[in-house]
Amino acid sequence: MVNYIEASSAPPKNTGAIRLYDTQAFEGMRKACQLTARCLDALADIVKPGLLTDEIDRFVFDFGMDHGAYPATLNYRGYTKSTCTSINHVVCHGIPNDKPLREGDIVNIDVTFVLDGWHGDSSRMYPVGTVKRAAERLLEVTYESLMRGIAAVRPGTRTGAIGEAIQTYAEAERCSVVRDFCGHGVGRLFHDSPNILHYGRANEGPELREGMIFTIEPMINLGRPHVKVLADGWTAVTRDRSLSAQYEHTVGVTADGCEIFTLSPAGLDRPGLPSLAR
Where, by residue number, does a divalent metal cation 1 bind (predicted)? Predict the structure, then answer.
């Protein structure tokens, strides 16, 4: 049975209950998420061939510190970096290092800032220089998958409607949906209930209610959906070495749909690709 609880009275840990946030909490999330979005906007100008992923990490750390925020991933469960940088066949949780980006790479940059106790979580794909059409198409399909999942969010539906919208579209485009990772509740906690699967059926999962806040972050592969985690305990890669992509937004359920907290203020939600009017 799914339990819902007013966030203001919930304990500071994930108990499995789904928190329902008030208007004041939504305002706190707007500020944290917009800071994250602005950082991702700024990265669009510096992601180029030759850039070290460690330089991306330093940029994110400095951006957060300059704006009174702290990177949530830094020292989280032993993780030592301020961001994740996942290149080409890396599905998620790629660790920044001294490896330079190369012409034709695609890289996901995942940023979460903690501002006044609120977690703003988002990620985007960045093409490095000129990429092949197959990679560009994967980015297009992945972004559209995210937006179709978001369009399914409204009170009274179930979390499975999000997964069904994503899976139906991605598989019709001859891509696959990663099952091993999912979206999650977010707010005062970095990772909270419920889990948001990116596959499934519309009649499955907890009911969506006004005040819920969570991420939607589909990982879409050009090949098969299977992944493996490398010996570092973090880096997840496609087993068949096919390209993988991910876009992520944090959303809050409203009375008649949802609010996307992490929308780019500069219209750069898909950097390197044409903007889409929605």
Answer: 110, 121, 248
The answer to whether the annotation marks 217 as part of a ligand binding site is yes
pLDDT tens, 257-278?
A: 999 999 999 999 999 998 764 4
Question: Angle 133-151/159-172 helices, nearest 10 degrees?
Answer: 150
* 249 is an annotated ligand-binding site residue: no
In the chain, what are the domain boundaries? Answer: 20-258
Could you tell me where the beta strands, DSSP code E, fall in 157-277? 176-177, 183-185, 192-196, 213-216, 219-221, 227-229, 236-238, 244-246, 249-253, 258-260
pTM: 0.97
- Is residue 6 part of an annotated ligand binding site? no
121 annotated to bind ligand = yes
Query: According to the annotation, is 184 in a ligand binding site?
Result: yes
Please state, in angstroms and rounded to a whole number, the distance separating the CA atoms of residues 243 and 220: 9
Rg (CA), the chain: 17
pLDDT in tens, 129-184: 999 999 999 999 999 999 999 999 999 999 999 999 999 999 999 999 999 999 99
Residues 6+ apart with CB under 8 A from 278: 147
Q: Would the annotation count 27 as a binding residue?
A: no
Q: Which CATH superfamily is domain 20-258 in?
A: Creatinase/methionine aminopeptidase superfamily (3.90.230.10)
119 is in an annotated binding site: no
8: number of Cβ within 10 Å:
12
